[in-house]
Amino acid sequence: MKSRRQYSMKLWTQVNILVMVHNTCNLKVSPLLFLVSSQDWKARLKMPPPDTRYKTEDVTATKGNEFEDYFLKRELLMGIYEKGFERPSPIQEESIPIALTGSDILARAKNGTGKTAAFCVPALEKIDQDINVIQVVILVPTRELALQTSQVCKELGKHLNIQVMVTTGGTSLKDDIMRLYQPVHLLVGTPGRILDLAKKGVCVLKDCSMLVMDEADKLLSPEFQPSIEQLIRFLSPNRQILMFSATFPVTVKDFKDRYLQKPYVINLMDELTLKGITQFYAFVEERQKVHCLNTLFSKLQINQSIIFCNSVNRVELLAKKITELGYSCFYIHAKMLQDHRNRVFHDFRNGACRNLVCTDLFTRGIDIQAVNVVINFDFPKNSETYLHRVGRSGRFGHLGLAVNLITYEDRFNLYRIEQELGTEIKQIPPQIDQAIYCR
């Protein structure tokens, strides 16, 4: 950490440089006056109360940088502080200055450590709000993540005159076309819909100089990769590509070699699972699962929980059972109407309900700070899915709990996932200390 004295000296040096510039133009300014006026803007911000919850090294092991060290626009700094961001997390420290230089980035960091701001901040900084063209495209794999990311961009850029648009499949194409006739600087969306609009000639991307791929491993799955490769052809030849994810399978290397120019590689994954998440398993028979879930609800201190099932059918059946047991419960899955999905996501995020049952649709990037418990009612088949599921709790260095209901058939999967992730999933004790997931 920098000492207060070092920071003061650095600030005083920056002020003196600015004063020298003013004074060479015969605008005589006192350094003290300049310092007071330059710091005054912070005092007027409407900042949320500081987050006093315990945080792990996943977000606290920083170099001690401040957001002001990156010489960002003051209006952007205002949005950053009013969003409640106090100082950059490790992934933000590594990514923001490199992204501002225009270099391509391949970044790997754990779920819930601040990846979204790591690309939103440089994207907003580099946009020229006086030029009414699409300058940044952020691609994400799901509609919910598109809505969440666009909201973060709007909140961080609320003091800038930057127009943010979100577009995804399952919504009105006509409305999107009409919106594109208005100024748009930053476009967030799913690859298929943006490609569709680009092919129709209404989404003009020739001036787009930055492409961000969030959850890049998912975007490079067979479902999305062909659309992304077509979409890149519509961008400026001098485009910058930023790729972020927690997991990078081999498909990423081939894409990197073909499309990224001397990328800066960031890897903050010395271990895969978040330090703040405690993981347990409970051996049960299939018919005992609902009873076991009921016991967990009665014994755990749940702020909000996400409960995962492996199929759409089981999601709906389990949500019905939980409601019958007398607990508040929503459910969400890919076969629901988009408007209904949006409403459930919005209401759960705003705390209207304590428990949410869902499929893996909801694993990618979804950030709900109040979630402190994840329950795998059905155990996932692979380690990547497991990693993304449990990463819904313990967001931004906070504590969380993951409980896995394991049947006889799941036992080999449990062992394999432990080995692949280099983590330990312990047998659940009769009593769980609240301090490990509620501080």
From TrEMBL:
<feature type="domain" description="Helicase ATP-binding">
    <location>
        <begin position="96"/>
        <end position="266"/>
    </location>
</feature>
<feature type="short sequence motif" description="Q motif">
    <location>
        <begin position="65"/>
        <end position="93"/>
    </location>
</feature>
<dbReference type="InterPro" id="IPR014001">
    <property type="entry name" value="Helicase_ATP-bd"/>
</dbReference>
<comment type="similarity">
    <text>Belongs to the DEAD box helicase family. DDX6/DHH1 subfamily.</text>
</comment>
<protein>
    <submittedName>
        <fullName>DEAD-box ATP-dependent RNA helicase 6 isoform X2</fullName>
    </submittedName>
</protein>
<dbReference type="GO" id="GO:0004386">
    <property type="term" value="F:helicase activity"/>
</dbReference>
<dbReference type="InterPro" id="IPR027417">
    <property type="entry name" value="P-loop_NTPase"/>
</dbReference>
<dbReference type="Pfam" id="PF00271">
    <property type="entry name" value="Helicase_C"/>
</dbReference>
<keyword id="KW-0347">Helicase</keyword>
<keyword id="KW-0547">Nucleotide-binding</keyword>
<comment type="function">
    <text>ATP-dependent RNA helicase involved in mRNA turnover, and more specifically in mRNA decapping.</text>
</comment>
<dbReference type="InterPro" id="IPR000629">
    <property type="entry name" value="RNA-helicase_DEAD-box_CS"/>
</dbReference>
<dbReference type="InterPro" id="IPR011545">
    <property type="entry name" value="DEAD/DEAH_box_helicase_dom"/>
</dbReference>
<dbReference type="InterPro" id="IPR014014">
    <property type="entry name" value="RNA_helicase_DEAD_Q_motif"/>
</dbReference>
<feature type="domain" description="Helicase C-terminal">
    <location>
        <begin position="276"/>
        <end position="436"/>
    </location>
</feature>
<keyword id="KW-0067">ATP-binding</keyword>
<dbReference type="InterPro" id="IPR001650">
    <property type="entry name" value="Helicase_C-like"/>
</dbReference>
<keyword id="KW-0378">Hydrolase</keyword>
<feature type="domain" description="DEAD-box RNA helicase Q">
    <location>
        <begin position="65"/>
        <end position="93"/>
    </location>
</feature>
<dbReference type="Pfam" id="PF00270">
    <property type="entry name" value="DEAD"/>
</dbReference>
